[in-house]
Amino acid sequence: MGDLFAPQHLILILLIVLLMFGGKKIPELMRGLGKGIREFKDAKDNVKREIEEHANEDHSSTPKSNS
Asked: Please, are residues 35 and 43 in contact by the beta-carbon 8 Å criterion?
């Protein structure tokens, strides 16, 4: 089996999208896709930052033993 997305597959997908939505709607679709990707990355970064903050709080609040 070859690659999942060979160049021929991508061309076929692009032609289908062009036929379904028309040339005028494609830029709008791409803007929406870009916005969705940005929002996903922002949410991912926020979750990562919150996890790191909580890990730092837990680490700093743990009492140290006097051995």
From this structure: no
